[in-house]
Amino acid sequence: MLAGLGPHFLPEYWVRVLIVLGINVILVSSLGLSNGFTGVFSLGHPGFVALGAYASGILTLELSKKAAYLPDLPGFLAGVQLPFLPATLLAGALCALVASLIGIPLMRLSGNYVSVATLGFLVIVNVVLVNAERFTRGSRTFTGIPPYTDLGWVAGWAVVTLLVLSRVAYSPLGRAMRATRDDPIAAQAVGIHLLPARLLAFTIGAFFAGVGGALYGHYLVSFSPATFYVAMLVQQLTMLVLGGQASLTGAVVGVTAITVLSEVLRNLERGFSLGALQVPAVFGASQIALGFIFILVMVYRPQGLLGDWELRLVNGPRAPEKAGPMYKGGKA
């Protein structure tokens, strides 16, 4: 209802804030499936967001604009222009395929090793996007993308994402994921294989990262590889850690808190006056504040605001399960 009525009753500024908030709910909750429920702390999520944005952008770009902006595209892409929904699904499928391929070796790793390896994936994606000028225009701005993303699309995909992730996270498969996180040795002793559980969480998360990337690309309509790099990674991790890595409800709370705080700081960093007091502009203050929040949460509450607590609507009638010792204090 909010998605349908919002654009008619809310100022355009708040509609845009809600669109960004909804996209971040998709991206952060999908990141939480692997980082929070399997304990595989991935730093490569923005790489899938980038692949989704570029894939959907190429598939939906008008043919005349493709000829102008991407004259060296291969023939099977140069003559294709898809509607928004099929392009979004294909973007998600592409990311899931890439995740399943790279996940086979990466999901065998644990701890710091998997974080460094997934960070390497993010760097590789960025370098490939910068150098694949035939497909991405390189480091130049990729522009001309149709502005398909609106509040209705974002709200619909956010609901689908949370429904699917909650069905996976609180199913027998989800319990296997949490078992591999809490005590991998005990999980294997009772017959749970680590690789399939981790790989499936990584692949599902990548699919929705690709969908979120497509929505974000059609919202921005112009972007470059730098849009999907370290700043996006820090923002997503801060939202996830603040709310609680092992909670879909926490992901929504973290996204909402950081989005509201970012908007407030973005307005304040332009400078303001309070009576006789004149506060000058401090550009970049919002990014600095996000960095401090990330540090403070990791030091004083590593399990996040909600820990592993879920709304009953999300995890069903079952009683919430206690987090294992690895997650209680963020220590092994």
Summarize the structure.
The protein is mostly helical. It is 69% helix and 2% strand.
Oligomer: single chain
N-end to C-end Cα span: 44 Å
Helical content band: 55-70%
Percent in strands = under 5%
Strand order of the largest sheet: 1-2
Number of strands: 2
Structural class: mainly alpha
Q: Could you spell the SSE succession in H and E letters? A: HHHHHHHHHHHHHHEEHHH
Low-confidence stretches: 319-332
Overall average pLDDT: 87
- Report the major sheet: 2 strands, antiparallel
Shape: globular
Q: What is the overall number of helices? A: 17
Radius of gyration: 20 Å
Explain what the structure shows.
With 332 residues, the protein is mainly alpha-helical. 69% of the residues lie in helices and 2% in strands. The chain contains 17 helices and two strands. The protein has helices spanning 2-9, 12-35, 45-60, 63-69, 75-78, 84-106, 111-131, 133-136, 151-169, 172-182, 184-189, 194-220, 230-243, 248-268, 285-300, 312-315, 325-328, and strands at residues 272-274, 277-279. Strands 1-2 form a two-stranded antiparallel sheet. Helix 13 (230-243) packs across helix 15 (285-300). The radius of gyration is 20 Å and the shape is globular.
